[in-house]
Amino acid sequence: MPSLNLLPDERHRIIRKRLSLGERVLAVEMARELGASEDTIRRDLRELASLGVCRRVYGGALPVSPASGSFRIRQRQNLGSKVALGQASATIIAADQVLFLDAGTTNLEIARALPNHTKLTVATNSPAIAMELISRSNIKLVMIGGLVDSDAGAALGARAIRDVQSISIDLSFLGGCAVSDQAGIRAFIFEDAEFKQALVGASRAVAVAATTEKFGTTAPFHVASSNDLDLLIVEADAPPGQLQSFRRAGVRILQLAN
Q1: Domain limits of the chain?
Q2: Which three-class secondary structure state does DSSP give residue 242?
Q3: Are strands 154-156 and 147-149 parallel, antiparallel or unpaired?
Q4: Residue among 71, 72, 53, 73 at smallest CA distance from 63
Q5: CB of 251 within 8 A of CB of 226?
Q6: With contact defined as beta carbons under 8 Å apart, do 122 and 111 qualify?
Q7: Residue 141: is its pLDDT beyond 90?
Q8: Nearest CA to 246 among 202, 207, 218?
C-alpha cells in the first residue's frame, strides 16, 4: 500500500482514538492501514507508551485500564454495573463454602449481595468488605491482616500473603484492574499483584467479575493468565472476541442479560 505521508501527530491521533475505544493496536495491521512501516508504528507505540497512553505487548499495544484510581474514587464509578455484577456473582455461591473476596469495588457489591440465610465462611483482605459482613450472623468472617494500602483498599504484604496461604479456599473472587485475553489479569500496585498471585495459588476455583471498560486493557503488574481462571462474570456488552478467547482457554462465562 502506498504511504499516506501522515505526520507523526496524525498517526498518534489515529492510534489514540483506536485505544480510546478499548481496542488493541497491532503494529502490522496499523502499518498496513496507515501505509507506514512496522518500525514506524512500533516507534509511535513506544512514544505513546512513554506518555502512559498504552502499554506495549508483543506485536503491538493495549490501552491502559481506566481503573487506576484509589479505592475511594473507584467506589463512585460505574456503580450500577457493579451492583448488577455483584448480584449475579452471588447466585453461584453454595452453602458452607469457604469464600475469599479480594479487595475491589465490584467485590464489595458481591459482599452486599450475599444471601442472608446461607451459611458461609468469608475471608477478605478488604476492611470495607469486612465492615459490610461483620454483622451477618450466617457468615463466619476471617479478616486478613497486615498493613493496609489506602489506594488498594486492602491489607497487603508478607503478613497478608502468609494469612491467605493458611486457608483452604473453595472459591475466590479476584479483583482485577485490567482484563485481557492476551495480557491476562493485571494490577496497578506491585504488592497488590503479589498478594493476588498468592490468592490464586491458594484457591480451588478463581472467578473474576469485571465491568466492560476493563476488557482489552492492561496495567503494569501481572496477576494471572487466562488459564488460571475458572469463571468470568461479565456485562451484556462485554467484547465477544475477548470472551471467545477466554472460552477457548477453558474459562466459563456468566454474562448478564441486556
Answers
A1: 8-63, 71-255
A2: helix
A3: antiparallel
A4: 53
A5: yes
A6: yes
A7: yes
A8: 207
Choose among 242, 114, 237: nearest CA to 171. 114
Strand, coil or helix: what is 115?
coil
Domain 71-255 is found in CATH 3.40.50.1360:
yes
Mean pLDDT, rounded, of the chain: 88
- Rounded Cα gap, residues 93 and 119, in angstroms: 10
Cα–Cα distances in angstroms (integers) from residue 71 to residues 29, 76, 129, 209, in the given order: 37, 9, 12, 16
> Is residue 138 within 8 Å of 160, Cβ to Cβ?
no
Residue 133 has pLDDT above 90, yes or no: yes
Q: Which three cell numbers, joined as nine digits, stand for 67? A: 481503573
Reading the block at residue 182, the C-alpha cell is 492476551
User: How many beta carbons lie within 10 A of that of residue 224, not counting itself?
Assistant: 22
Q: Which of 88-92, 213-217, 241-245, 252-256 has the lowest mean pLDDT?
A: 213-217
> 3-class SS at 185?
strand
Q: What does the block give as the cell for 84?
A: 448488577
CA pair distance 168, 165, nearest whole angstrom = 8
pLDDT at 1 over 50: no
Helices 8-20 and 27-34, interaxial angle, to 10°? 130
pLDDT in tens, 201-249: 999 999 999 999 888 888 889 999 999 999 999 999 998 888 999 999 9
Domain 8-63 has CATH 1.10.10.10: yes
Grid cell listed for 88: 449475579
The Cα 11–Cα 46 span in angstroms is 13
Residues 6 or more apart whose Cβ sits within 8 Å of residue 29: 60
The answer, as to whether pTM is greater than 0.85, is no
Does 8-63 match 71-255 in CATH topology? no
